[in-house]
Amino acid sequence: MGYEKWTKELNENYDQTVSWRRHLHENPELSFQEKNTAAFIKETLEEIGVDKIETNVGNGYGLVARINGGYEGPTIALRADFDALEISEQADVPFQSKNEGIMHACGHDGHTASLLSVEKVLANHREDLHGNVVFIHQNAEEMIPGGAKSMVEAGVLDDVDYVFGIHLNSLVDSERVNFQPTFGASNADFFTVTVDSNEDNLGDALLAATAYLTQGQKIASNMSDASKPVVVTFATVETSNDSYLETPDQVVLKGTVRTLHQETREFVMEKLDKLAQGISLAFDVDAVSDYDVGYPSIKNTPQEVYRAVDAFNRVFPEEEVAELPIGMGGEDFSYYLEEKPGAFFRVGAKFKDDDSPYPHHHPKFIIDESSLLRSGQVFLALVDEYIGQQAN
Amino acid sequence: MSKRTSVEWNEALNQDGEFTEYIVNVLSWIENVEVTVNDQNFIIAATGDQPAEIAFYTNYPTSKKDKQEAIESHALFESIQQLASENLNAQFVFRPTNSFDKASVQSSFSPSIKTVYVVKMEKDDADVPVYVSKGAQIASFTTFDINVQGRGGHAAYPDKTVDATIVSAAIVEELQQVVSRNANPMAKGRLMVTNIQSGEGTYNIIADSAQIKGNIIVLDDDNNDLYKTRIEEIATQVGKAHNAEVSVEFNNMTPAVHNDDTLVERTKEIINHEFGVYVHPETASLIADPVGFAFEETPGATLFFNQKDAEDIVVKTVQAIVEFPAEQLFEEE
């Protein structure tokens, strides 16, 4: 069978997949600045020998590759992102980031390496395919506006029938494959609250900001509809000076809001604004909330989810494929699913003997690299299901 | 000198200029004044041709925000001119507001100095022209650093993290009770949080750690100890409640300034003789000042002046003190 043949080759290429991943891990680049990463991907794709490569697709360094099958059939798209985060790496690995203050702390290096490994296999077995595969190497997933929407607008899905993506999960045992029939990720919005202590008011901007931080917790804890999930996170506090003597004139709070439902999203937006007004009055400061609507929630196509799960159950042990409760992570993969049917899956990446794994976006985030193999297998299972021998 | 100096002084105040240079230039216009500047930009002016036994100390501004200091230093310019014209011996020390260096404070005063008077301005609505009182007059200044160690992670999964930003905010909220609930309301003091840093500038990463900075300003050691004890207790226990590790460090920057009781009584007599007899209000300043280091070696007193007509009052007071026999300043009645 095609899948068996493909995964045998995937296994044989495992060391190379790992070396691609580690190269990417050592050389992370921030969203919209992934010039060298894109160049590396392009060079690798040229060595692999795909049928077509397009570069600078969309609003940044995104690439699209294509392998045309030996037979006519549908076209499926597989997507992996390749941007990194502004984090100083503390993971104890011999291939630590060489770019100070930047780290692949969400697994995008693994996604990209896995997709390249699949491209390599399928480039050698075009004749097996009853259809075509489009490979979306996407930039800037971590930073609004993201890369997905612009790549969709650039036409990457124009002749695509189905689109799939995966995400590694450092909190779940490696080799597990998780799915969600409905919501795959939340609405992911961002906000900035600026608190100014102007000369006229002489208010304490720092005290006002801490009050905002603590009172802001109540939006999620007690004010919103308890049946609808919501997360309000303050990620950064920045002050206009660094002194032991004087309080700052300005404090800036940055954060994110995660919701599943539009009405909850609008509720939180309004509350952040009202809290700013109240804090301004109470503390004699000028507090302003600035809300940026971000990625919409991922809405998987249930029919394709279950079709894919059937495919996974044919090739993976039953206990390794499971439904995952909805989480509040955001992902701009949602834009692809607004255009075409498909689904987004999670692949476990935790070392099985690790009782206290670090979450994504943590300076000590690590993955079990056997998950690269499982990610490749997931992609290949999907290809086999939709345009491989299994499809026919 | 006054009109010209006032206009140019106001112009200088509106620029972030070289205040040190400006003051030295102004003082250099006055005849019979020796002016020096040390490596910490303390400006020292000496009048008279004999070593002075009495010194007057104040602060000069280093930015446009230092309006109080601008008034204080300007008020002494007239005194310097007056004493210089009469060849009276005195020393004047102007400290830059951004210096807390102990050695610089102590070395600014000549070995001949037996008494240091600190010049401070009060509000326009003070009922008396100048006053002095016993006890602590200028607060001690202690800084604190609180480090909050949480567990960072993805902003969408707060349940997998210990959010250092929220813990630090909770600590700041609870620290308010040190002043409002723990300290004696009659004991003047202040706890100020001056900085919080958390996160690396992102929107979607829960901070792994946060740092809080601030200061304690109190008038005596007992209260300083109380504040420090409570800050440590509150910070660590709030941290513990949130599963965060919290550490606290203190740095005693400047001691409190206590007036010499005998000197206070003599000074009141001098003031009363000059301006008439009145009740001197009990007061104290909660502005940090390293002059306490000078008081460790030399006894002194803090003079509070009404800002209204400050120059005239300062000139009269300074001259009256300098003309008073120095050996009698510490004689008890």
Derived from helix and strand composition plus strand pairing, the structural class of chain B reads: alpha+beta
Q: Spatial order of the strands in the main sheet of chain B?
A: 1-2-4-3-5-15-6
Number of strands of chain A: 14
Q: Could you give a short account of the major beta sheet of chain B?
A: 7 strands, mixed
Helix content of chain A: 25-40%
| Gross morphology of chain B | elongated
For the record, give the distance between the C-alpha atoms at the N and C termini of chain A, rounded to a whole number: 11 Å
Query: Major beta sheet of chain A, specifics?
Result: 8 strands, mixed
Strand content of chain B: 25-35%
Query: Quick one: which chains have the greatest interface?
Result: A-B, 51 and 43 residues
The strand count of chain B comes to 15
What is the string of SSEs of chain A from the N terminus onward?
A: HHHEEEHEHEEEEHEEHEEHEHEH
Poorly predicted parts of chain B? none
Our count of helices of chain B gives: 9
List low-confidence stretches of chain A.
Answer: none
Question: How would you portray this structure in words?
Answer:
The complex is a heterodimer of chains A (392) and B (333). Chain A is α/β, with parallel strands linked by helices and 392 residues long. Chain A has helices spanning 2-12, 14-26, 35-48, 108-123, 148-153, 205-223, 262-283, 302-315, 334-337, 370-387, and strands at 52-57, 62-68, 71-81, 130-138, 162-173, 177-179, 183-185, 187-196, 230-239, 250-259, 286-295, 298-299, 321-323, 342-350. In chain A, the strands form three sheets. Chain A has an eight-stranded mixed β-sheet. A four-stranded antiparallel β-sheet of chain A has the order 9-10-8-11, covered by helices on one side. A two-stranded antiparallel ribbon of chain A has the order 7-12. In chain A, helix 4 crosses helix 10. The mean pLDDT of chain A is 94. Chain B has 333 residues and is α+β, with helices and mostly antiparallel strands. Chain B has helices at 2-13, 19-28, 67-85, 102-108, 164-182, 221-241, 261-275, 292-295, 310-323; strands at 33-37, 43-47, 54-60, 90-96, 115-122, 130-131, 135-138, 140-149, 153-154, 189-198, 205-206, 209-218, 245-254, 257-259, 300-306. In chain B, the strands form four sheets. A seven-stranded mixed β-sheet of chain B has the order 1-2-4-3-5-15-6, with helices on one face. Chain B starts with a helix and ends in a 10-residue tail after the last helix. The model of chain B has no long low-confidence stretch (mean pLDDT 88). At the A-B interface, strand 8, helix 6, strand 9 and strand 10 of A face strand 9, helix 5, strand 10, strand 11 and strand 12 of B.
